[in-house]
């Protein structure tokens, strides 16, 4: 435990276990958790590539719905379990240690209301993995899964009209749109995030509906995260 520390999960009143030097959750996960629209009749949310479970834990402050996280790396999975136990969220959040490509072993088809995912951003052959830890390499690069795997497995477990939420790099939007269309997801909302409004967008948040009607895409006004004090309800005005 000497290489593990317990940190505040921003201002959500929760705590999260992290490695001091090789794996920490990102702002991307916090933004994605805030971007998710949870309805009163939402019963089950599944978070792909959950890491040490920042998204499930943040969502627990917004809903009483059942939340399941899926994490392939055993060490990171154990951090998630420790955090959930520390925050006394065991009755609401469950973490499964497996590849998202194995969801059929754990879920019935069309049994989930929402799937969220903060996936690896980089293609496996896009950059060198030299000098990266195994944990960071798998978290950052499409070594164990890719964009198409997300769509295939989200489509399997999502109910008809179920919602898929993604955060990703803007330079992969064309590919993301291609796979969403291939698996019959309709894009409903885009949110571009900037570190500074005078610079290029640093990421995009996407809401898509399984078997949704085409032609009702909404693009929220751009948001800069520069000098923010809190991320809570950051998208409230954008809706």
Summarize the structure.
Helices cover 23% and strands 27% of the residues.
Count of DSSP-assigned helices: 6
> What is the overall pLDDT average?
89
- Would you state the CATH class? Alpha Beta
What's the SSE pattern? EEHEHEHEEHHEHEEEE
Note the beta-strand portion: 25-35%
Number of domains: 1
Q: Which secondary-structure class do the elements indicate?
A: alpha/beta
Superfamily at the CATH H level? Answer: Vaccinia Virus protein VP39
**Global morphology:** globular
Instruction: Give the radius of gyration.
Output: 17 Å
The number of E-state strands comes to 11
Task: Pick out the low-confidence regions.
Answer: none
The main β sheet shows up as: 9 strands, mixed
Description:
The chain has helices at 27-35, 54-59, 74-86, 134-140, 147-157, 173-182, and strands spanning 4-8, 15-19, 44-48, 66-71, 93-97, 112-117, 158-168, 185-194, 203-210, 218-219, 223-224. The chain is built from 6 helices and 11 strands. It has one domain (26-224): Rossmann fold (3-Layer(aba) Sandwich), CATH 3.40.50.150. The protein is of the alpha/beta class. A hairpin with an 8-residue loop joins β8 and β9. It is globular.
SSE diagram, text form:
Layout: E1 4-8, E2 15-19, H1 27-35, E3 44-48, H2 54-59, E4 66-71, H3 74-86, E5 93-97, E6 112-117, H4 134-140, H5 147-157, E7 158-168, H6 173-182, E8 185-194, E9 203-210, E10 218-219, E11 223-224
Parallel strand pairs: 3-4, 3-6, 4-5, 6-7, 8-10, 8-11
Antiparallel strand pairs: 1-2, 7-9, 8-9
């Amino acid at each position: 435990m000497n290489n593990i520390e317990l940190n505040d999960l921003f201002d959500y009143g929760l705590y999260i276990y992290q490695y001091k030097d090789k794996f920490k959750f990102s702002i991307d996960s916090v933004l994605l958790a805030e971007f998710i629209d949870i309805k009163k009749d939402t019963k089950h949310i599944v978070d792909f590539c959950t890491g040490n479970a920042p998204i499930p834990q943040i969502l627990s402050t917004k809903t009483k719905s059942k939340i399941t996280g899926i994490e392939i790396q055993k060490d990171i999975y154990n951090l998630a379990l420790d955090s959930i136990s520390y925050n006394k969220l065991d009755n609401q959040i469950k973490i499964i240690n497996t590849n998202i490509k194995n969801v059929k072993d754990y879920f019935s088809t069309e049994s989930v209301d929402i799937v969220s995912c903060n996936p690896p951003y980089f293609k496996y052959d896009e950059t060198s993995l030299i000098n990266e830890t195994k944990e960071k390499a798998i978290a950052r690069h499409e070594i164990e899964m890719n964009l198409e795997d997300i769509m295939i497995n989200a489509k399997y477990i999502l109910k008809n009209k179920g919602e898929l939420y993604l955060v990703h790099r803007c330079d992969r939007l064309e590919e993301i749109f291609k796979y969403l269309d291939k698996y019959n997801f309709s894009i409903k909302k885009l949110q571009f995030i900037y570190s500074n409004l005078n610079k290029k967008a640093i990421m995009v948040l996407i809401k898509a509906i399984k078997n949704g009607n085409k032609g009702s895409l909404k693009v929220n006004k751009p948001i800069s995260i520069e000098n923010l004090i809190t991320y809570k309800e950051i998208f409230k005005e954008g809706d």
